[in-house]
């Protein structure tokens, strides 16, 4: 396998780590944090893990299969946690379900998820239960729900400010940062009736499509514990796909909603920018607007993406409190008929060729779509390498100033993929404003050209891989060209599941691939990892992309496509 | 009077000007350009100017009064050109008016405007007439208009790319830049039926609230030719307020729609960003997104702002062709009742105190609003100095790289206010990305705080000066804190006329003002200029500001306010 360390020669990491200071000043705080997390696991919700975790990892344990086969929940708990948020909300509204019973079922499934997958950074099921009780009392007293999310258990990526709790964003230096108020999105969800009980893991720097951090380490994939749950919304990917929350809120600047959704077996939307409020939280991105981060929903159905976006935007109106957000309600867009839209397929972004399961997933979906009457054409990538180079420069063009400030604040050890991420673009070269503006001009022209291609050719959507592979082995994900392309373009992108899973017997390189010449060291690094046996059982998720601010159209078409392919993540 | 030159000590202008090269290589091109402009003045539309222009300037000639008193147009021409675009469109649609008769009336009034005010950079009334004829033929043949702007004469700021014509943006180095295609906004307006015939003046660099440039020199104020028409949409300000076009399209990054609208006696909207397409044209701003420029309408009525925004956005859909634009249709918002909204008044931004006519205008409007039942409160400025310092840094933080490139390309002489503008912020200090991001963080916090203030206090709108004074003497406008504040906040801002005009007998400094201590050299520079006699007859326009992306609400309330104060710019 190619050696990743050859890619880490440019950067000087001096001034980041300070082992002595970290051990003395910060590690005790981290240990206390870990203890608090362990202590917060309510035994009422736990199960017996069949073997020690290292063994399960080694055995590529499928925690989802185990959950169902061993019937770790009661039939009632399965019925609740395998319902869409949309249908739960209807039943909570009619009184058919109580918030407390819904909560307990999800809390149990979330704690089991955490036992296997290490997805939580903070658990507070006691507070969640109190909240659910309050909501039931409210309903009993008023004969109506408190809002459209009344009693819906929602998981939150840790970086989002939460009232009265630590918000560290994966940086040890922020371990004493107790945020006095909810962030605006959290407040809106609470105002609409959501129940909170888990804040989920993310990697150091938030810039890995993986999970490693000095608080809680790795988060594992629900379908194959040797693999990554993805990142940076690592814990959201795992807990949502495992069924431990009805809806999760992640964030995405290069693929951080989509990678964990695809890898872990879920659904996720990277909305167009400025529809979700990002105020307030911890990240390195303050003032960076060349490629802005977004928040968005992670679910087990496209219907629930629609449900969340609709209520969050139309009742939550984030623009009222956050002038950063666009006053852009969620439009009601009906599911299109198959004959009424055209999909262009990107089989290969010409940066990293997809592995066999991804190509199989694309072929499967394309065949189904064509059979259903959808017009499908091939898409010839437009300057993807330039886009990838440019977006990577945008991430780091402050010379890693903010990352360095946040990391060196504690002197914490840098993880492998942190070093990788600090090498993006031109590493710690500090750009001038002039140079940054030139990157923006490239971005704007790319955006114009992709849009023009779609408009001129009547292409409604692009269908692409989310990543060149299914879920990677933890700490071995280097490329994110398939997702970051749509961050730089700011096109809305929905990850959905094909319902297929990697199969080592089927997903071998085609015979002709032995003549394939790697087009870059990055491609070699990614593709030489692909040994079919390693990725056994990993979900095959894909990405559907629409025109900028046509989030609603993407979600509506996503529903049609999932109907066509017949993938239902609530059925096992 | 304070010496403006004391403010020009920081900057090194070497490398910009090259008199020898300019004289030899570029001046002949400029002279040919001027000749072409002079030749394009169709004698059929001209009038006899009563005295030479220098004398009229010296005499503070009121060209608007002269137009009416001397009846320079026929009653039919007055009736047409003193109609709103809204009503013209209805009459063109019903067949009551023909495009040719509408065009000829506006062409005549525009040419007269140019004779007095020097507002055109390019005239092509021959092409306009052909277009009007084509539209009449289309109507005769099809029994309907080609679109909602069928036959509406629209003037365009020169910097907007126009098919087959030079687009220079005020930079001599761009004098051979023939743009092959219309910009997207121009194309949309044409597709909707507009008639083009004049492209209007702008200052060198586009960064003055004034007009001086090496192509055509100064544009004059319609109401007092000694004064400036404003800038940078200088010619739009003059031609629209004079009645030479039904609607003008300007652009604004620091006040460039609002200053000329206010100074010249018109109405103008600086929309929130990304509603209008800016693709393509000439400016120094490519890739600069800390404080983005916007385009927007300049008119003689708030109704016509609504008319243009409605059709441009809802039928033009700029987001289809320009992925930079937001998919955000123009919402239909009814005029609010006076009792249904609250206005907070900024009597003084604490940077430059308003002069007597502006304070009188504010008092007049406040009294009228209160009498009508509008709730009016005082507004205590929030960190206006920080906002002003920050926005000024944002303009130049590429170290004036792009301006220098565009200016030194020809070595053209720098005008006084170009030197002033190149000194904004930290002048030619080239910021790093890190430093730029810090400015953005300040901006975002300001935006958050202003919005929060308005939301928490149920303030719907701010009423403020547009500038500390009425129209300034040409080349003597230094401060733009009142307008630039809403560029950095990205709040929509509508300039409207009070119907009042400066009166030297009335608009004297209050006796108490003699004790006023200037709070800065900028304030001294601005206020020491105020000799009442100089500004005789200048219109008193004000600014109404709403929350971000509540452009529709601002326009709707603007209609109510204009109804209350009874200012009708079509009546003389």
UniProtKB/TrEMBL annotation, chains A, B:
EC number: 3.5.1.4
This protein's record includes keyword tRNA-binding: no
Record has Ubl conjugation as a keyword: no
UniProt-annotated catalytic positions: 157 (charge relay system), 232 (charge relay system), 256 (acyl-ester intermediate)
Positions annotated to bind substrate: 206, 232, 253-256
PANTHER family (alphabetical): AMIDASE C550.07-RELATED (PTHR46072:SF4), AMIDASE-RELATED-RELATED (PTHR46072)
UniProt name for this protein: amidase
Organism phylogeny: Eukaryota, Fungi, Dikarya, Ascomycota, Saccharomycotina
